[in-house]
Specification:
34% strand; alpha/beta; 8-stranded parallel beta sheet; single chain; 17-stranded parallel beta sheet
């Protein structure tokens, strides 16, 4: 790892500004400002010019913006050689750059930054101006003292040195002749202290480490408040972080997992032994595997060639995180590169390029991943995407023309042992194979040539009425063209058919086996085309056609992005016979349900239950207009009360659920999350599967929900002494009380801990950080106990109360007030991802699975609690019922209402989650509410320091804290529980002691616009 650091002193203005601030003594001569006059620029309401000359540091003057002027004046010329600027309590360190000016002639007497004592050449004047040029916070001057004599030279000093270790900067400083009351650390990305940021307060000792920095140059200062009220600033020092990133070139022999296509070498200019050439179809993919030591963003650089624009989704670990546009390069031997940043998790990451158009992907030569400590992954369970590319299995060939080992498929199958344990390929050349097939040998792969699915046909034409030769008929099962009874069979690039025609049961394929998978396979027939009799089957990018009950049976059969096509009129698509104890039956994930033009609209049911507990589910499927509005039918003597028919977020003309039979269900978000390939098949992961198509994830840069979360780095000193004090206040149940100063040891013990005002979540994050810094397992165990507490207090419905154990009253309600629940969810979000400060061994994968479950339940609660107003979703209340999700009142002046404040972080948290259709709908509705002129108080701002609070301010926007649930009218309340529409009608105590409005919506609207909402 390369690092570079050069010590430097910078900012001559800073040296001048702090010549007094670093050499302060108690004043021994007369303060000439006492009794003098004062004036200045515009001031904030409640402050006064005269407050700077009254000798009282409790009163102050504050400008009405980040800049301003305050002046001291005398009736006759007065000799001055020194000024002392004392900032008001709570505003220390906010004044950045300033200048001291002789009002009479405009001469600048001194300039610099930071309040304190200022020496200059003696001058006789009648008025002196202190002009604030910039501020890092709201500036306020308590006293503007003036003296005839300059301060004596002092030996007090603060000398800072910065050093670099990897991506951390360690600061060491020496302090001489200062009685330290408090110390703060400041950082900036340029050498000008104006606008510098305080990154730590209450620092003890003389050492501080700034961890996990991105590459760049950083500038640091130490600021000390002495016990006698003086301020000392150190010299500035800089440090350059330049970590060496790993440039991992991922090609066909290094981190490359698979291509849905082939590796070719027929165009020049590629590296390695070839390039990945995907199939020419939408959804075709190339998969890579990358290991990362910890969660961080990496830069992907894709080298490609194409004669047309071929954009691709970029999927990381099952989630689409961005788009690579991949415009045409002009020729197949002309190679260009495109780069984008993606998030990697700790451990192995599965990265996929997925074609967005029917042209497929460009030819991909390589993908270079640039990040920290990256290495090629092992590809997990992923295998080569096309059966023809397999090289480590025995291959048996079939061709009708006699050019292969066998001329019939059945002969090739029969050549394999019935107890076969070796995965074996049977590769079938194009042709029509008229055979009644029995696939009864395990571990076989029936493989057609890529792109030749329609011309490689396995077919037969028996029906249920075909004679069995013994005086009877074959029946439904006996009519089967291709019967699969062996486990672990794969089929790819083939057409399987019953060619008899319509009017009678005639099965194309019957499967009574486990772990049977199909990809790019066509199933052709009419009634009873595909009989998923029993076991477990997976269908990827397949086509199934028929008329009546053409997908039926008792297996767990998952159709992933398949086309299901009705070629003629029929009662239903599916006829499941699922056993009652089997949780999943026939399931469709994505894809489309279509029909021939001859099929009438509103005529075909999604399913009818062949057996009482039959289960069929359609998730995110495009349903055609031929679908019956009621959705489902009963079969024969069965009724729908026991059937398990469900849908989730389907689209298209047939997706309207308003007339669906009452016995069917629309899945909740949490329920739909269970319909993943891994979950439905338990221990089996079909090699043909990727993850179920996931919703996109938004960039988190600028998301306001993370602002409060990051307070764990600055709220308290990052020292063991401070951590031990905080630890001593932790209750036995793992939580903390609220509003603790943590300036002395606590007693722990029992109590109702809380998540109000950031309690527990902030302490837990702090403890995780301290464990990472020190390795002290007591801090690790503290954070783990706190997480256990948070998980334990979650209601089954997904919400969190304010206190736990419950104590009755309004605190038992699910609490969004003061962002309590969203702070918990944000902590869980970071912990589940293994992001800082949880990027250590503090939690394991089992823990993170629990966090994911808690997050999903929390999301489900939020979606259920969103208030619907006249049929339109809006926002949320500060409190909701734990089980009925309804708005609830809290204190007398906290009535049932829509919250203009707390709803911001609820939206922001939802924007951390994969943007499923349901989540997106909730966000869209809530943002529309914030953007509505019915909720915005245009050209006004809320000014808590003013008497009237709501003041006219052209161009500004204000939102009320509380809105009426039914008409969005903003209101106020008081301890009498009344509703008021003029803030001046409530008591002064409530008017001054509570926040009734603010620019709440600005942050979320700004962030939303930055990510496309």
């Amino acid at each position: 790892m390369n690092t570079h650091k050069k010590p430097t002193l910078f900012g001559m203005g800073l040296v001048l500004a702090l010549s007094g601030a670093t050499s302060l003594h108690a004043q021994t001569d007369t303060n000439l400002s006492l009794g003098a006059g004062a004036d200045g620029s515009s001031k904030q309401s409640g402050s006064s010019y005269g407050n700077v000359t009254d000798g009282n540091t409790a009163s102050y003057w504050a400008p009405d913006s980040a800049t301003g002027r305050i002046s001291v004046k005398w009736s006759e010329a007065t000799s001055i050689a020194r000024a002392v600027i004392v900032e008001a309590s709570g505003h220390e360190g906010n004044i950045a750059s300033w200048q001291l000016v002789n009002h009479q002639n405009g001469d600048v007497l001194a300039q610099g930054s930071g309040a304190g004592s200022i020496n200059f050449a003696p001058v006789s004047l009648t008025k002196i101006n202190f002009e604030i040029l910039s501020s890092s916070g709201a500036p306020a001057v308590a006293e503007f003292e003036t003296y005839a004599n300059g301060a004596e030279e002092d030996t007090a000093s603060v000398n800072l040195a910065a050093s670099v270790n990897g991506d951390d900067v360690t600061l060491n400083w020496d302090v001489s002749n200062i009685n330290i009351a408090s110390q703060s650390v400041y950082r900036d990305t340029d050498s000008n202290p104006q606008g510098r940021t305080r990154i730590a307060a209450g620092v003890s000792g003389s050492r501080y480490t700034d961890y996990d920095l991105n590459d760049g140059t950083y500038y640091y200062w130490i600021k000390i408040n002495s016990s006698d009220g003086n301020i000392y600033n150190s010299n500035g020092d800089d440090a350059e972080i330049a970590t060496t990133s790993t440039a991992l070139i991922v090609q066909e022999d290094n981190g490359f997992c698979s291509v849905e296509g082939s590796i070719d070498s027929n165009h020049s200019g590629f590296g390695g032994s070839g390039f990945a050439n995907s199939d020419n179809k939408s959804g075709a993919g190339i998969t890579y595997s990358i290991n990362a030591d910890y969660a961080h963003n990496a830069l992907l650089d894709i080298r490609y060639a194409a004669t047309s624009n071929r954009p691709a989704d970029i999927e990381v670990n099952g989630t689409v995180v961005g788009t690579a546009y991949l415009p045409a390069t002009g020729a197949w031997d002309s190679w260009n590169s495109e780069s984008l940043t993606v998030p990697l998790e700790a451990g192995e990451n599965r990265v996929r390029l997925i074609a967005q158009t029917a042209n497929g992907l460009p030819n991909i030569d390589s993908m270079t991943a640039v990040g920290d400590n990256l290495s090629a992954g092992s590809c997990g369970a992923v295998v080569v995407m096309d059966c023809n590319d397999v090289t480590d299995q025995p291959v048996i060939t079939v061709a009708q023309d006699g050019s292969a080992q066998y001329s019939s498929v059945q002969a090739a199958v029969n050549s394999v042992s019935r107890s076969n344990s070796q995965p074996t390929q049977i590769r079938i050349k194009p042709g029509t194979y008229y055979e009644k097939l029995l696939i009864d040998r395990p571990n076989l792969s029936l493989c057609g040539e890529a792109g030749k699915t329609e011309s490689t046909v396995l077919t037969y034409d028996d029906t249920a009425d075909t004679s069995d030769g013994n005086g009877g008929t074959l029946g439904t099962s006996g009519s089967t063209s291709i019967s699969i009874t062996a486990d672990d069979v794969s089929v790819e690039n083939l057409t399987m058919e019953n060619s008899h025609g319509a009017g009678i049961q005639a099965v194309a394929v019957r499967i009574a086996a486990d772990r049977v998978q199909f990809r790019n396979t066509r199933f052709l027939g009419n009634q009873d085309t595909l009989y998923v009799h029993s076991g477990s089957q997976y269908f990827k990018n397949c086509y199934v056609e028929g008329t009546v009950d053409y997908i039926f049976g008792g297996a767990t059969a998952v159709f992933d992005h398949c086309q299901i096509h009705s070629v003629g009129g029929g009662t239903a698509i599916t006829a499941p016979s699922t056993d009652a104890d089997r949780p999943y039956g026939i399931v469709f994930l994505g894809g489309e349900v279509t029909a021939a033009s001859s099929v009438s609209a509103d005529s075909v049911a999604l399913g009818r239950n062949w057996r009482p507990y039959g289960a069929s589910t359609y998730l995110n499927v495009a349903l055609g207009a031929h679908i019956l509005p009621q959705g489902w039918r009963a079969m024969g003597s069965n009724n729908l009360t026991t059937a398990r028919f469900a849908e989730y977020q389907n689209t298209g003309a047939g997706a309207d659920t308003s007339q669906r039979v009452s016995e069917s269900r629309q899945l909740s978000y949490a329920e739909a999350e269970n319909y993943t390939v891994d979950n439905m098949f338990e221990s089996w992961v079909p090699s043909f599967s990727g993850h179920v198509a996931s919703a996109p994830v938004l960039s988190q840069q600028g998301n306001p929900v993370h602002e409060r979360f990051n307070r764990y780095l600055s709220e308290w000193s990052l020292s063991s002494n401070q951590a031990n004090i905080i630890l001593s206040h932790q209750y036995d149940n793992g939580g903390w009380p609220k509003n603790q100063e943590y300036d002395s040891n606590g007693n722990g013990g029992n109590g109702s801990a809380t998540i109000d005002n950031g309690a527990t979540t902030l302490e837990m994050s702090y403890m995780a950080e301290m464990y990472k810094r020190t390795g002290n397992t007591a801090y690790r165990d503290s954070a783990r106990a706190a997480m256990d507490f948070l998980l334990q207090m979650q209601y089954p419905s997904g919400g969190w109360p304010q206190l736990y154990p419950l104590r009755g009253g309004y605190s038992d309600h699910v609490t969004f007030n003061d962002d309590a629940m969203t702070r918990v969810l944000t902590v869980l979000y970071h912990a589940e991802k293994g992001a800082a400060p949880f990027d250590s061994d503090i939690f394991n994968s089992g823990d993170r699975a629990q966090f994911k479950t808690a997050l999903d339940k929390g999301v489900e609660y939020i979606l259920n609690a969103q208030w619907e107003q006249n049929g339109v979703l809006t926002v949320w209340c500060a409190q909701h019922g734990a089980t009925d999700y309804q708005p609830k009142a809290a204190r007398a002046y906290e009535l049932k209402s829509l919250s203009g404040s707390e709803s911001v972080e609820i939206i922001a948290f939802l924007m951390t989650q994969p943007q499923t259709p349901q989540i997106k709908s909730a966000i869209d509705a809530a943002l529309a509410w914030y953007r509505s002129p019915n909720t915005i108080h245009q050209d006004y701002q809320y000014d808590k320091s003013s008497e009237e609070k709501i003041i006219y301010s052209p161009g500004d926007r204000m939102w009320y804290r509380f809105y009426n649930l039914y008409d969005n009218q903003g209101f106020f309340s008081d301890r009498d529980g009344g509703t008021y529409y003029d803030i001046m009608d409530i008591s002064e105590e409530r008017r001054e002691g509570y926040s009734w409005g603010g620019s709440y919506g600005e942050k979320i609207i700004s962030y939303a616009e930055s990510v496309g909402y």
